[in-house]
Write a structure and sequence with these properties.
- By secondary structure, the protein is of the alpha+beta class.
- Helix content is 71%, strand content 7%.
- Helix 15 links the parallel strand 6 (474-481) and strand 7.
Length: 526
């Protein structure tokens, strides 16, 4: 009996360290596989960004220029160049879509952007047919279709960059997208500005496109300023701050104001300056794109090397497991128990999610946490609540089914996210009812925001799977208080917004109603 006790003690002394080694090795292997999978996914996304950036900055502008050249001089050389650029765009576009994972792996927002990108390419195909049929003359402005396609391509790339997990790759992808935005804006400003200075083809739409180009490049340069520690970005900022570049920006503003007087000298200076600026940006786009691809490949290779080392260690442990024999069964049981505990923990964390799965908005739990953080003791400004409810939503479900009802809820949620301010908190309050918390706004300002959302909902046309479209309306109730208060007053604010919503419903629906501001004290009459 004593021997048996000693034997059990010795076996236990041998087994315990081995069990811990196996458990730690399995955990390390799991983490290594996850790290490798994440980095490999990041590398693929980075390659997609590089491909999309090349399409938007090189292939599409090249076909646009070739199309303009062919319309001006439809000869054999221009026709051959046009065919070459078309093939380049088609090949790059096909490579981009071939690299995409299955569409089900993306969010509804990214899938919607991909649909718009395909539509933009379809418009290019239609434009090609019109050009080949001779429906455009030498003065026609076909650039708008190409510029919109390039902008859609950049928008998809910007959305994809948010899928990257690695901080270094994410930073480099943001740098690339910032340069691409700046370059795309410059392309628009260069083309429309040239028409202005030639006094030809400049219309109200041209003015709007010039404004769009200026806004796009300013957005890109503003984003670049977040990365001034990077030598390439710092070089771009320094280049754009040169006096000659500042003068070009002043000319652009004067064009948008209509006060710039075109002269041949000014046109020549504009053309030379813009070509130099675009060439400089293209050079940096190539450098950053190459760096992004190299970084992704290097990090993926390092992760693969690390994974091989981990697999070698696991193999050594497997040989050790053969020595200790039957003790491995106990190790497997322990790993099974740890796995079940981990799965239970993951399920518990999943149930604590703070996001409404249908709309992507906050659910009530997430909203309460975000509102509490926003309205802490340091907040003493006004706060407004907008409560809105879809009109006759039950009729939509009864007539079209709950799938269409869910589609309507998602569409309205997207409208709300686009139309409310970025700092506003939006929550699916229940069913077809939504709630928005608007910090730093009083009752009148909140009502103006609510009216803007109401109009956006009313004007939207929701495409149905059957091919038809559906229009919906919503009723809004607004309430506000001048300063932060305790939780009971905040709940009272929601109740007042709810009463205002009922008033909007009673007033015929599809309108905005407001309540009195909480916090105003009523003085007794003297």
């Amino acid at each position: 009996m004593k021997f048996e006790t000693i034997k059990k003690t010795v076996i236990t002394a041998i087994m315990l360290p081995f069990i811990f080694m196996v458990a730690e090795s399995v955990q390390l292997m799991r983490l290594s596989f996850e790290q490798y999978g994440t980095l490999e996914s990041d590398r693929r996304v980075a390659a997609l960004l590089a491909t999309g950036g090349a399409i938007a900055s090189t292939e599409i502008p090249a076909e646009m220029n070739a199309t303009h050249a062919f319309l001006r001089d439809p000869g054999p050389e221009t026709a051959a160049e046009l065919r070459r650029t078309r093939l380049a765009v088609d090949g790059a576009r096909q490579a981009f879509f071939d690299r995409l994972p299955l569409s089900g792996t993306f969010s509804s927002g990214i899938n919607a952007q991909l649909t718009k990108l395909r539509s933009a390419y379809s418009r290019i195909v239609g434009l090609r047919s019109a050009v080949d049929d001779g429906r455009y003359d030498s003065q026609a402005d076909v650039g708008y279709v190409y510029r919109q396609a390039a902008l859609r391509q950049l928008g998809v790339g910007d959305s994809f960059s948010a899928l990257i997990h690695d901080p270094l790759l994410l930073r480099k992808s943001n740098e690339l997208m910032s340069i691409l935005l700046t370059y795309h804006g410059e392309l628009i400003v260069d083309y429309i500005g040239g028409h202005y200075l030639k006094r030809s083809g400049f219309s109200t739409m041209s003015h709007e496109q010039l404004l769009q180009g200026d806004v796009t490049r300013r957005l890109g340069t503003d984003r670049l300023r977040f990365h001034t520690s990077v030598p390439v970005i710092r070089g771009i900022i320094d280049f754009l701050n040169r006096p000659s570049e500042k003068r070009a920006d002043i000319y652009t503003q004067a064009m948008m104001s209509g006060v710039l007087r075109p002269t041949p000298e000014l046109r020549q200076m504009w053309t030379v300056g813009e070509q130099a600026r675009l060439a400089f940006l293209r050079q940096n786009i190539l450098a950053v794109t190459h760096d992004l691809e190299e970084t992704g490949q290097r990090m993926s290779a390092e992760a693969q090397k690390h994974l091989m080392i981990v697999l070698s260690l696991v193999l050594a442990l497997a040989l050790l497991a053969a020595v200790v024999g039957g003790l491995g069964v106990k190790g497997i049981r322990l790993l099974d128990r740890l796995t079940r505990e981990r799965e239970a923990l993951v399920e518990e964390l999943r149930s604590a999610s703070e996001t409404d799965l249908l709309t992507g908005l906050y659910n009530r739990r997430g909203f309460e946490a975000a509102a509490a953080a926003m309205l802490d003791g340091n907040h003493d400004g006004p706060v407004a609540i907008v409560l809105f409810d879809l009109d006759h939503f039950k009729m939509i479900n009864d007539k079209h089914g709950h799938d269409v009802g869910d589609l309507v809820l998602r569409h309205v949620a997207e409208i709300a996210k686009r139309t409310f301010h970025s700092i506003d908190l939006i929550v699916r309050h229940g069913g077809e009812e939504f709630l928005a918390l608007l910090p730093e706004l009083d009752r009148e300002e909140a009502a103006l925001v609510a009216e803007r959302v109401r109009v956006a909902v009313e004007e939207a046309r929701i495409p149905l799977p059957c091919g038809e479209t559906l229009a919906v309306t919503a009723s809004f109730g607004c309430a506000a208080r001048p300063r932060s208060a305790k939780g009971d007053q905040f709940e009272d604010l929601i109740k007042k917004a709810d009463l205002a919503l009922y008033a909007a419903k009673a007033s015929g629906r599809n309108c905005v109603a407001t309540s009195a501001i909480i916090g105003q004290r009523r003085h007794k009459p003297a």
